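agent> step 3/5: call structure_predict on target 'Glucose-methanol-choline oxidoreductase N-terminal domain-containing protein' (Diploptera punctata).
agent> reason: downstream docking stage needs a structural representation; sequence fetched in step 2, passing through unchanged.
tool.input:
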Amino acid sequence: LDWKYVTQPSTKACLLSGGKCSWPRGKMMSGSSGMEGMMYTRPHRSILDKWNETNPGWSFEDCLPYYKKSESNLNPDLVETDYHGFDGPMTVQNFPTIPSLCEAVLEAAEQMGYERGDLSGSEQRRVGVAQMMVYEGLRMSTSRAYIRPYLNIRDNLE
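tool.output (status=ok):
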């Protein structure tokens, strides 16, 4: 399921493996989303704004509507609603149970001065329980969200 790519040798990373890092990439219908850990993350605002300097149209403000359009967040009470979508094809939510150690880690981070909050909201330098791309106990890959619903409907999709 993995192309088993490795990076070019580096003197600054993966030093225990000769400077070459594993670079997992999925060779399946959903690509890498079919093998990743299901955690829902977005690039930090500053990364998108930096891309926009050489690729106009990739700023945070340009991309946010598409993130919202793709997302069906099932926890509106836990997120900043201006930064999330609620009727898109990709289900995003918290797992129904959280390990007990998680609360201790979050409290420790708060004691160190970090703020708790929505990790994909207005300020991404926070701590919190990451939301996942999962629905009814199953991984919500790009294939499951965008392709499978149309397999028996579209003539041009096999």
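agent> step 4/5: record observation. Residues 94 and 129 are 8 Å apart (CA to CA).
agent> proceeding.
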